[in-house]
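Final report, Chapter 2: Outcomes

The project's central promise was a pipeline that accepts a single protein chain and returns its three-dimensional structure in a standardized token representation, suitable for archiving and comparison. That pipeline is now operational. To close this chapter, we reproduce one record exactly as it appears in the project archive, with the input sequence first and the structure output second.
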Amino acid sequence: MNRPTDAREGVDAPVLAVVSDLFFVARIRETGRLAGVPIEFARTPEQIAASLGHAPRLVLIDLTAGYDYDRVFAALEGAGPAVLGFTTHALARQTRPWHPRCARVVTKETLTQELPRLLKEGVTA
């Protein structure tokens, strides 16, 4: 699960976004549209499991949304795509238990700045 994304793998494969914040849903959706990258959204472990059937090449997960992260990461376990977690500076310490389960963790500010590249290229080592 913590492997880097190979940008050559699954060029048409979707990016799975586990996000409920409407600002980030809109931002990710629009950036994906402009970049020509298909985006799927999920909020529950069941939706995540269903989306994993489409072999996403990257998973974006909001570590501040208050999900049942044990269940979310259990659904992602062994699925293959790299996981990019995002948090805030203020909640970085609180979200730290989930950081090792991600290939990379960034702040929401960094996610916003790097989103076009991340959607196109994925997470690099």
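Archive annotation: Residues 27 and 112 are 8 Å apart (CA to CA).
This record, like all others produced under the grant, will remain available to the consortium after the project formally closes.
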